[in-house]
Design brief:
It is globular and about 85 Å long. It has helices at about 1-10, 10-25, 30-35, 45-70, 110-120, 135-145, 165-170, 180-195, 215-230, 245-260, 270-285, 335-340, 355-365, 400-405, 430-445, 450-465, and strands at about 75, 85-95, 100, 125-130, 155, 175-180, 200, 205-210, 240-245, 265, 290, 300, 305-310, 325-330, 345, 350-355, 370-375, 390, 395, 410-415. The chain is α/β, with parallel strands linked by helices. It is built from 16 helices and 20 strands. About 45% of the residues lie in helices and about 20% in strands.
């Protein structure tokens, strides 16, 4: 069976296929750009920077690190309980089997591509369910993997319809990795619960940005404009809520208005536009102030919209939003900002701008899966970094060493060496006293004397073998 043979083959062979794939990506990147043409308004440079270059770097990360990460970890004598003398142990990482990957529409190559490659490197077979209209990049990736030497049947692209997930789960999978909305995550999790199938879920975000006193307002404005422009602002960690000290709010409004002026409108699906329209108008009715003209509901493209004087209780600040919109929330200080940010159920990513030492300290207080300091979005493309959210933003991680290990399950193997197995004998008089002596010697807080420890071990052995 191809899957069993793949799981049993050595990691070096699996990674040789990843290496050949990376070289093919470099040689024929233009084909991937054409396969990504379904992303509206995205040029070649953005496809290269947003998906293709990061995918190649993710391949290189696996080539360098996967063998060591997946190798059995042998435990030496250090830290081994004294009463387990003669026992050798190791921790193994084994593949799950069939991993179903449910891909998103905003990054239809990078996100499912990295997840699929990590699953394959760990020895799994992979099923990919692309988002509607997004099969082309996955089909291209599958063709190139097969040309690179991947055995047939180990990478399958399913139909784009949501029913494909239900069918795959019913047929039997061993793990699911999903990137999508919180509502989709809840629905799929219910399907998995009956069969107790484990999952990793990267779900919605409504990311917060914290502007500290001393931050360079011009840099903040440029970064926020980038977040509104990049990929049409259809990024789960794009900035949506900006908490800014009251004394700096006006300056940020001015700088941001200038920075976003040249950003072209982005295509936003009509259902999203209608939902957003209701949230925006409710926020304006509650006191938010639009910097510019509110968009028309019927317009298929949306220019960036900034709402000043937003307040934490507004529904707009608690919902997932895949559109170029940003809310500015004036605060007295960062304590108030943290309290305000916590009112959103999402905890995917966050950014902090300001003096590095202060920003780094605030990063440690944030409830978020990933935090960037004095930047946003781009640093998370580092293939060494795991990525995942908290609360309504999901669980588990993808990418990085931790993401690779999530594609495996743990097996421990312990080997008893020697013929002495005193614990197999029935209890005898005096055993309780010996155990109490061992407990107090090892854990009583008076330090361990090697000689006393040796005598105790000999006494235990003698007690069992006399």
């Amino acid at each position: 069976m191809a899957r069993s043979a793949w799981a049993a083959c050595n990691t070096a062979r699996r990674l040789s296929i990843v290496r050949r794939l990376r070289q093919r990506i470099a040689a024929d990147a233009e084909e991937l750009v054409r396969a990504l043409a379904t992303r509206p308004g995205r040029g070649m440079a953005e496809s290269l920077s947003a998906e293709i270059l990061p995918l190649a770097e993710a391949c290189r990360f696996l080539e360098r690190e996967a063998a060591a990460l997946l190798a059995p970890r042998r435990l030496g004598r250090r830290g081994r309980p004294v009463w387990l003398f003669g026992v050798a142990a190791e921790v193994r990482r084994e593949p799950f089997g069939n991993v179903l990957i449910v891909g998103p529409s905003n990054y239809p190559l990078l996100l499912p591509g990295v997840q699929a490659l990590q699953a394959l490197a760990a020895g799994n077979a992979v099923l990919v369910k692309p988002a509607p209209g997004c099969s082309a990049p996955m089909e291209r990736l599958g063709d190139w993997l097969e040309e690179a030497g991947l055995p047939a049947g180990l990478f399958q692209v399913l139909h784009e319809s949501p029913g494909a997930v239900t069918d795959a789960v019913a047929a039997g999978i061993d793990k699911l990795v999903l990137t999508g909305s919180a509502d989709t995550g809840r629905a799929v999790a219910r399907q998995l619960a009956a069969a107790l199938v484990p999952s990793t879920m990267e779900l919605s975000g409504n990311d917060a940005v914290f502007v500290l006193p001393g931050a360079d307002i011009g840099t903040v404005a440029r970064a926020l404009a980038f977040g509104l422009r990049f990929n049409g602002s259809a990024t789960c960690i794009a900035p949506r809520r900006v908490f800014v000290p009251q004394a700096q709010a006006a300056a940020l409004e001015d700088a941001l208005t200038r920075s976003v002026a040249a950003i072209p409108p982005a295509a936003v699906p009509l259902p999203v536009r209608r939902r957003l329209d209701g949230l925006v108008r409710a926020a304006v009715a509650e006191g938010a102030r639009p910097l510019g003209v509110l968009p028309e509901d019927a317009d298929p493209a949306m220019a960036p919209l900034i709402l000043a004087d937003a307040r934490p209780g507004m529904a707009l600040l608690r919902e997932e939003l895949f559109a170029p919109i940003l809310s500015l929330v004036p605060v007295r200080d960062m304590d108030e900002a943290l309290d305000a940010a916590a009112q959103s159920p999402y905890a995917l990513g966050a950014s902090v701008f300001g003096p590095e030492e202060d920003a780094y300290a605030l990063a440690g207080r944030l409830d978020a899966g990933t935090v960037t300091v004095n930047d946003l979005i781009v640093p998370t493309a580092d293939p060494r970094l795991p990525f995942g959210g908290r609360r309504s933003s999901g669980w588990g991680v993808t990418r990085g060493a931790e993401g690779l290990l999530e594609m495996t399950r743990v097996k421990t193997v312990s080997v008893r060496r020697g013929q002495r197995l005193p614990h197999l004998d029935p209890p005898r008089d005096g055993d309780a006293a010996l155990m109490l002596a061992a407990l107090r010697l090892l854990h009583g807080g008076h330090g361990i004397r090697i000689g006393a420890l040796r005598r105790l071990a000999q006494a235990l052995l003698g007690r069992r073998n006399d």
